[in-house]
Amino acid sequence: MNILTYLIPISLILGGVGLVAFVYTVRSNQYDDPEGDARRILSDDWDDHPKP
Amino acid sequence: MTATMRPTPSACPACSAAPAAETLAARDLPNAQIALSLPTIHCSACISKIERALNDHPHVNSARVNLTLKRASIDAEPEVTAEEMRTLVEGLGYEAHELDAGTLNATATDRAGRDLLMRLAVAGFASMNVMLLSVSVWSGAEAATRDMFHWISAAITLPAIAFSGVPFFRNAWAALRNGRLNMDVPIVLAIVLAIATSLWETMLSGEHAYFDAALALTFFLLAGRYLDHRTRAIARSAAEELTALEVPRATRVRDGVEEVVNVAELAVGDLILVRPGGRMPVDGEIVSGTSEIDRSLLTGETLPVFAGEGQAVSAGEVNLTGPLTIRASAVGAETSLHRMADLVAIAESGRSRYTSLADKAAKLYAPGVHILSGLSFLGWYLYTWDMRTALNIAAAVLIITCPCALGLAVPAVTTAASGRLFRRGMLIKHETALERLAQVDTVVFDKTGTLTTGTPHLTNLNALPRAAVETALALAQGSSHPLAQAITKAARDAGFAAAEVREVTEVPGYGTKGLFAGEEVRLGRASWTGAEGLSQTATYLKIGAAAPLALTFTDALRPGAEEAVQALVNGGKRVILMSGDTTPAVEALAQRLGIPQWVAEALPADKAARVEALRNEGAHVLMVGDGLNDTAALAAAHVSISPATALDAARVASDIVLLGNDLSPIGAACETAKSATRRIRENFRIATVYNIIAVPLAVAGLATPLIAALAMSLSSITVSLNALRLR
Fold first, then answer.
1. Tens of pLDDT along B49-102?
2. pLDDT for position B4
3. Compositional bias (Basic and acidic residues) at which positions (chain A) (predicted)?
4. Taking CB atoms and an 8 Å limit, are B44 and A42 in contact across chains?
5. Containing H/E element for B383?
6. Can you list the alpha helix ranges (DSSP code H) found in B76-183?
7. 0.95 surpassed by complex ipTM
8. One of B100, B228, B270, B446 is an active-site residue; which one?
9. Which residues of chain B does A45 touch, with a Cβ-Cβ cutoff of 8 Å?
């Protein structure tokens, strides 16, 4: 059962990483235009050079 | 201050002053924030094309297209106007409309929604972790391992609940402070009691801890709240976009110089120029110019009224033929348009009497739960004289009866139904609008602008002599007056060519005159052409000395009006037509649509009073109207619908807005509302059945955390699935 001392913290940390990632996406307005973002990835405007 | 007094080290003071002045000026003028509505964009090519064109403009700092909202937001230098941007985008082949940035600001960041989402995420994360730990406890973890799992659960649960439960704590506290009970009071009590007894049990290394239940409860209820919030946020942002499309601008004349200003900046005594086709921004008096004005939005009359010097005009009226200069006598909140809001406020107090199904359920439910849990506590305490057992059982009863499914029962259905109606072009603005729509048994329609489009349609073309039509066409084709445009369209469609009329001049407010074969010809108002005025909408043609001929008009029907009335009549509803227009016009329309009951020449207060009277007879009235004269009636009715073309005041007063031009969704909406209400009731019943099965177990002391978790999740999931069945 000693394995629990590793496994429980690991699972909590992994879950926490997911939570922090989600909070980050909400805070940086990534859900404002879901439809547009889905289409933008198909556009090749900035393929050769990054958007200034 | 000291910094500005210090002498500059520069040899030439002007050299350093000029750039400083420039930066000052630049700071004074904030960048222009322009929003455009782009209803036709649909693909990634549209996005990049528009963004590239806007960003290539030398004065635009940045531009971004939002495909979900079909909107472009532009950050540009102060001298850039919205009109310039609009023409730029229209040049690319896309429809574009300016949006009033001030109205839209409120929708830009949905802070409350984001806050709820964050709390939901934390509750979800915590409940998943605690559930995993609980599963191992249920599957047989014992002694020290179980205690450790309970302690870890407690360490996760306490901060998570403290953060995610805030909306419930706040609502419950607000209710308790006012001495009322709402759904949140039993929720908070269940959460707090569950955590307290679980902590106590954990300290005594007991067997049952309800940390997972407390978290799952918070998670499900927050999910319900979030759904509810999203539905309303979507409706609100769509309603705000409608308002933002009408940019409130007026042309002010000062010392002979015209300038376009925001309506909010107008003051009493300002001279305002209203061009033909424009709407009066303020109440005032005509200083110069003659014209005809269309008051249909205020009174429901379709007949244009003559307007000359010295006459009073009210905000909302539309100028038809000649430019008018008016002196403002009341602006902003003082205008008659806004004074109508008082009538609305009085009428609205009636609507707030409606109690939603959820509130009704809560009223029955909240005291019941408290009494049941209190009794089981008392019973077990008297039976065993053991505080710990009694408290544990009381907590179990509270958790199992907790309104998890009830909290989801209404929002899940309303979200599904609103989404369905939104796709059909109806915007549900008010949270209980669907429930109220389901009860409707009487439908009151306004005429002008609601059942009809407000654009006239020539009716007696075939009865007129050929020469008369050709002369009328020649006189009408240059005018922008709606009646003249109706003549032009009807005559051209029937294949007539204009006669050779020379010296055609428009006399604003009266009509058009010209010379035909040496005789003077006139097309216009009855008094001007020497005709006897008819009671219906008409214009008159006088050729030389001959008797004047009347050209009569009816309002074109709005598409879907016949279907909507038919569907409502077939649905067994009483349909009434109520209009401020003249009796013959209203009667003709009522016969055309097969509406048995109609009221003509109704004043705004009459309309509201009649709706009120119908209510008092016990009828549930649905009012459909668009004008200012309908506003009070819209607010007084049980539920109200207005088309998107309605005045802002009418849209604000109504519960549902029709986004398209078509009226036919009204009939279907009543059906959807009925089935939605049926689903809500079904959901309440499902939740009750789960309670009836689980509560005896809890009261008998047989409930374990496993049973609580199963009952809660199963009932929540069934309720959500049932909501999705909505057609």
1. 888 888 888 888 888 888 888 888 888 888 888 888 888 888 888 888 888 776
2. 39
3. 36-52
4. yes
5. helix B357-384
6. 82-91, 101-108, 111-138, 143-164, 166-177
7. no
8. B446
9. 48, 52
Query: For this structure, is B662 an active site residue?
Result: no
Asked whether residue B354 is assigned to any structural domain, the reply reads no
Distance from CA of B184 to the nearest CA of A (A): 26
Instruction: Read off the DSSP letter of residue B279.
Output: B
Whether residue B11 lies inside any domain: the answer is no
CA distance B150 to chain A (A): 13
Q: CB of B130 within 8 A of CB of B156? A: yes
| B522-551 confidence digits (pLDDT tens) | 888 887 887 777 767 788 888 877 778 888
Residue B514 lies in a domain: no
Which residue does chain B place closest to A4, by CA atoms? B145
Asked if the Cβ–Cβ distance from A15 to B122 is below 8 Å, we say no
- List all residues 6 or more positions away from B505 whose beta carbon is below 8 Å from its beta carbon: B512, B513, B514
Nearest Cα neighbor of B503 from B475, B542, B545 is B475
Strands (DSSP E) contained in B311-441 are 312-313, 318-319, 324-330, 426-428
pLDDT higher than 60, residue B668: yes
B112 touches chain A (CB under 8 A): no
Give the chain A residue whose CA is nearest to the CA of B108.
Answer: A32
Please answer whether residues B564 and B424 qualify as being in contact, where contact means their C-beta atoms are separated by less than 8 angstroms.
Answer: no
Q: Per-residue pLDDT tens for B106-155?
A: 455 577 888 889 999 999 999 988 988 888 888 877 778 888 889 999 99
Assess whether pLDDT exceeds 70 at residue B455: yes
Chain A CB within 8 Å of residue B105 CB: no
From the list B167, B185, B165, the residue with the least C-alpha distance to B175 is: B185
Give Cα separations from B217 to A43, B85, B716 (angstroms): 43, 50, 10
Residues of chain B with Cβ-Cβ distance to A46 below 8 Å are: none
Closest Cβ opposite residue B114 in set A18, A26, A45 = A26
Per-residue pLDDT at B403: 66
Specify the pLDDT at position B29.
61
Q: Does A1 touch chain B (CB under 8 A)?
A: yes
Which H helix or E strand runs over B489?
helix B482-493
- Would the CB atoms of B44 and A12 count as touching at under 8 Å? no
Does the predicted model carry a pTM greater than 0.80?
no
Q: How confident is the model at residue B285, as a pLDDT?
A: 87
Determine contact: B117 vs chain A, CB below 8 A.
yes
C-alpha distance from A21 to closest chain B C-alpha (Å): 11
- Is residue B640 in some structural domain? yes
Same domain (yes/no): B562, B611: yes
Closest CA relative to residue B88, chosen from B129, B53, B131: B53
Shared domain check, B233 and B132: yes
Domain boundary among B89, B108, B127: B108
Containing structural domain, residue B717: 111-238+359-414+675-724
Q: Is B372 on the interface with A (CB under 8 A)?
A: no
Chain B residues close to A12, C-beta within 8 Å: 129, 156
Place of tokens 């007879």: B617
Query: Of the candidates B261, B248, B245, B239, which has an alpha carbon nearest to the alpha carbon of residue B98?
Result: B245
Among A12, A26, A36, beta carbon nearest to B65 = A36
What sections of B246-351 are H helices per DSSP? 296-299, 336-351
